[in-house]
Queue: 2 jobs
Job 1
Amino acid sequence: MNATSALFALAHVALVEALRERILYGLLAFAVGLILLSAVLSNVTLGWPVRIVTDLSFSAISLGGAAMAILLGVRSVASEIERRVAYPVLARPIARWTYVVGRYLGVVGTVFFNVLLMAVAATIMIAAYSHEGPFQYAVSDYLTTLALMLLRLAIVAGLAVLFSTFTSSTVAFIASTGLAIAGHFTADLRHFLGKSETWLTRAVGELLYWALPDLATLEALPRLIHGEPILGTQAVVAAAYGTFYLAVVLVLACWRFEGRDLP
Amino acid sequence: MQSRWIFALLVVGLAGATHLLHRASLADAAERERLGPLPNARILRFVTSTHHTSAADLYWLKLVQYVGTEAALQAGWPDLEALAELVTTLDPKYGYAYQASGVLLATVGRIESSNEILERGMAEVPDRWQLPFYAAFNRWYHEGKFREAGELMLRASRLPGRPPFVSELASRLYASSGSLDDGIALLDLMIANTEDPLLRDDLVRRREDLVIEKMLRLIEARVEAFRDAEGRWPRTLDELDDPAIRAFLPTPLGQTIRWNPETGEVRSLFLQDRLVVHDPDREPEVSEERPEPSNATDEDHP
């Protein structure tokens, strides 16, 4: 079995396993419920209801997707090791990086599948409440916003898998949740610490900015609802940044798992 | 087995008490004119990070519910500025929040606050033509500043999406005579461009005020002319033989007009206070030599 087919076989197994998780359906129901609630709330507002529907639906997808990425990511490797399910697989002639990437792809595939289901529900709602033409937003801007959100969730899942390769599920959950939250404030952190008169504080600010993910860069929802163009150089640069950051996280995860002594 | 029943009864009892208390607290909230403490807008903006627009939406919904609260409406929405400030700090580009808050504040007479939020909106969302449009209305209708109103209307007329007649209004305001026809025309446009029932109803009421004021001034002028010619007050308004007055009187607004042939006083049950357009550069449209009101009983027209 070559590396590619092993990778896809592992991803397939991880995807099937993840789809069996009951918590996934709970989160899906929660997010779809929030999307439907946004339609109810939009009926008690003044102005254009489509803004409320878009805003709350995307927030629901984003929060639901992040919760899925973290919960599935932290269990992807750590839980397999804790339950000793990973050993028979790793005993086969499969590189450890293949195992990590395969598990990661399974997690991301599951998250993307669920996000797309939620996105379909949100798109139908937005179309139903659109007041400027059949669909309120330019399709390219809408799809770019969704794509950036998927990339953001892929990074969150990557961080969860990274922690999962060298700690327990619980610690990985706490660490990846903390990083996912902190990732929305890195630019602010840099800004505040950059105002310090001490060079050390400014240097720490810079270091943290480049080490932590800047997830706010990958958020285009405010621009979408304000009707500002999204698909442009800024979005391409943000997507490139996100892709490179994700690559670094996955390489780190593979590297950590390669060097890990399994009991 | 027995303990299971005790727990079941305990759960039902506690749930019932919670429900009753919740209902009582909701009823209390519906009657409150004040909202209680609101979060610090800047801190909330920071905490909600990239979801700040969703937070703004939730507080916008709170603002809408607050505006619809009867007790708050009676008190003149004392917390409206704070809520509008919170919403627009959370999402500084929330153009509609500036617009609706500005209009609502103007309806309760807080013109300074209304102007302030509309000005802030114009700075943050410079492409939204409705903001200078409503600011122009404030200047003209509430403050009698025709020149400033004209400047703002001109600014609105240059923005994308504005109706084609805004530029005409700008020129009319620039050369404004301050006549009531200008006001009625402006309100017609505002009503035509307002989607929300709450705001539209308010604008319709304002328009009706102007229509009645215009008719009262016309009747007063005709009555004066009649007295100059005949040396007495007309017995009925029909005696004035004015087609505009005759056409107006059978309408619902016309039905509110009351004429007193003994004192020469004409008034409307609809318009408690007469409208005065502050325009110091102009002669008053109505003669100030009105007879002193007497205790004579009003007679229905004609």
Note: Chain B touches chain A at residues 46, 49-54, 57, 60-61, 64-65, 91, 93, 96, 100, 195-196, 198-199 (CB under 8 Å).
Job 2
Amino acid sequence: MARKKRKTVMADAAVPISAMIDVVFLLIIFFVVTASIDKEVEDEVVILAKAPHGKPMEKKDPRSFIVNIRKEGKTFIAGIEYPMSKITEMLTASAAKWGKEMPIVIRADQNVQHEYVKRVMEAVTNTGLYRVKFNAVVED
Amino acid sequence: MSRKKRKFDVKDAEVPLSAMIDVVFLLLIYFIVSQKPIVEDTLLGMDLPAPGGKPKSDKPMTMLTIDVAKLAKNSDDVYHVNGQPFFFNDLKNFLKQTAENDKDTTIIVNCDPNAKHKKLIRLLDTCQEYGMTKLNLVNDESIKFVPDK
């Protein structure tokens, strides 16, 4: 009897690593897959201006060309900083691919000077595109 | 011997719930805490200056020119409508009245290159509130751009 008891205690003390690891990996994979899609396009440093009367965006156009403008005027696309000449090139390439109706979304920081926004808009009009929208946040 | 084996099998089949729940709750708490609050986005649109500088329609239209000036300490809230200074609240009332008379009034927005972007967004938001959609943005080349330090 004494031997038997010892053995059962040992069995209880074993850590069930395989089941735990299964759950942990499953959760991690789920969160990684769901979380990192939009973050690449949207610059976290940019603080958008508030527009309490704007209509909440229901659906994003998948063709949208998103340009982020930081407070100091630097332009970022998909997390990488580009000079204006490169942005013009990219706009031209995208316009050739998606057509002139392609929407351009300007995500400018609320405190950026208008000149930097103007430069992006000039690049847009020079490319022949015209659907420009400013991204803002609906908040009270 | 056969009895012993059976007993071990039963012990092995037990699910170690406590450890698993520990891990699951830890992960859940981590992800909940690190999650961004959901912010509703909006898109405000306007017509850009055409490359040729020609107006888009030939119809006679009522026009309003609003200058968005640089935010200064003493004129924080001031916009100029057809040359006259308006505080933001007065501008709101004025736009409301204009929208009641004619929603199709074309508004030409002339933005100072030194003005903060939020000042322009606030104007666009107010126009959106009163349903005025004919907005044209023009560039004021007469004002010199001085970058912030």
Note: DSSP finds four helices and six strands in chain B.
